[in-house]
Write a structure and sequence with these properties.
single chain; 271 residues; alpha+beta; Jelly Rolls; 2 domains; four-stranded antiparallel beta sheet; 4 helices; globular; binds N-(carboxycarbonyl)-S-(naphthalen-2-ylmethyl)-L-cysteine; binds fe (iii) ion
Length: 271
Amino acid sequence: MNQAARQNMAFFRIMQIGLTILCRDRSSQPGAEPAPIPRQAIIQAIIRYGLLSPRAMTPLFDDDPLPPSCERLEEGAVLLRGFAAAQAPALVEEVARIAQAAPFRHLVTPGGYTMSVAMTNCGRVGWVSDRTGYRYDPADPATGSPWPAMPESFLNLAASAAAEAGFARYDPDACLINRYIAGSKLGLHQDRDEKDAWAPIVSVSLGLPAVFLWGGKRRSEPVRRLRVESGDIAVWGGPARFVYHGVAPLKDGLHALTGAARINLTFRKVF
Ligand code: MD3
Ligand code: FE
């Protein structure tokens, strides 16, 4: 057990003893032994009274899901941890369905490098790259067919996350779906192939955790590292729309939803 976990355990015990004494004092029958306080009630008390931020604690028990939180990264950018946790299994299922019609593939950059992240799309247009450049294409170059339609559940999730971040009536045209395995990474870049420079990009993380690289408006600015987990959503638009960002090489692992992979959905207003 690490130091943080030991501190959490100690804190938990103190809370338990304190609440037990409190309940005993209030008990109408002085002789009666009070029932032990359920651990969930203690955790709720810790959270409710803001004694510790639940997300700052190492989980006490593996089966305690963390409540969602909203963290402002900078003007125009928020991180909504756990926002999509409940829908995550259904989202992963939709991705599998989309990938049957439009298979994941490793795109080649204009510079001739094959990307380590595998990609596919759904929506009115899809983001593609080849030796001629980057573009949004209404057809999947691999099949010549239109991209699979954006599922209603994707649209609703993206719109409610955007609204939470202050962007009303978000109606994305495209959803780029990125699949990472151990070692896959995305170098520092800006997303600038979209006409609407204010509408946010909404990013949904599924499966294995990753580290977001989060820089400034110039490539030379320092880069922060931000761990994201399955169910976390990041929204960035307005003044934060053109920050440099990327994803550090994925660590290997296994996730109940996605196995050895991380999947990221990025919603974009293209036109
Ligand atoms: C913006 N994909 O496909 S969010 C992309 O995880 C792309 O696959 C990421 O960037 C992915 O173009 C999705 C990356 C990110 C991370 C941190 C940020 C964007 C950020 C911090 C602030 C603003
Ligand atoms: Fe990007």
